[in-house]
Every structure is written in structure tokens, then in C-alpha cells.
Amino acid sequence: MAIALTACSSGPKVRSDQAAGINFTQYKTFSFVTDLATDRAGYTTLVTQHFKDAISAELTARGYRYVESDPQLLVNFNSNVANRSDTRSIPTTSYHYGYYHYRRGIVYAGFPVYSNDVSTVHYKVGTVNIDLVDAKERQLIWEGIAEGTLKQKDLEQPREAAARTVALIFEKFPQSGS
What backbone torsions phi and psi does residue 27 show, to the nearest 5 degrees? Predict the structure, then answer.
């Protein structure tokens, strides 16, 4: 199952948080935690690989270097898809016409009938969390989160959806020196 978000017309909601007093320029290297949250049954999923590629590209573009051993930063990420339903009720008014006989003939009259049109909409919501951990201190120093409605295109093109989502999350990443 593809687990990613995309920037739709309003886009996903993206937020981030960071530990106080962290100077991000002190970090130069990164790697991924051993057991990533998106892996299943002891093997790397395609979703995991899509996110690793996208995150590596974003961190490399910011001057960080990927290393196999002894990294300064450890990266973990998770994605989740939840089925949601909304019940929507829209008040409506219609007019019904009837007639009655009143002394001199037939009179037609309209009277309103009030009702609600109720519909249920089913959709998928995806959430992606990216954590950066100081490897030496084992402390979370930055977290980026995106949540939004998944489109059919996201499910059909998970690599592209993962790349778009990760790029949106990293727009919230601290600038060098902050």
C-alpha cells in the first residue's frame, strides 16, 4: 500500500518542532535507524525505499553527507494511512402545492417542507513523520509531520508522492546556524 501525501490544492498540513538550543551546523553526517517504522517482517518495503531516497536527497541538498557507520544524525520516519468518513447534512427546502375549496372556488397554495440531504464521504488520510536524532546523545532534535487527504494518484505513484511530501516537510527544516 502506498503511504504518502501530495500537495493538493490546499496541500497537506505540515508542521515541525525542534529541541531548544540546537545548532544544526554541528552536524555533518546522517544515516537511518536500523529498524525503520515502515519496514515489515524483517525486510525493507518499497515505501521505505521511496522515503529513504527522498529524505537522502533533501538532506544531501542541505549539505549533509550519508555514511554507513558512526553518523552524527539518525533518521527515522513513519507513515500511516487511516480510513475516514464524514457525514454531511445539508438543509433543504422544497415547496409542495395543494388545493382547497374556500367558498368561491379552488385555491392553490404552496407550503414549504424542510428536510436534510445526508451523505457520507469515505476517504483516506495519510500522515508522515520524520525524526532526526542526535546519534551520540540519543535525543530527538527535529521532527517534521505532514497530514493530508490521499488522492488516487498518490496510491498509483507512491515514489513521486513520497518525494513531494518529504520536500514539503523539509521546507520547515531549520536553516543552517539556527
Answer: -100, 135
Cell of 168: 514539503
Amino acid letter, residue 67 = V
pTM beyond 0.85: no
Alpha helix positions (H), the chain? 46-61, 152-156, 158-170
Strand 65-66 to 29-32 pairing: parallel
**Max Cα distance, the chain (Å):** 99
pLDDT tens figures, 15-54: 999 999 999 999 999 999 988 888 878 888 899 999 999 9
Report the C-alpha gap between 38 and 49 in whole angstroms: 9
Element housing 28 (H / E): none
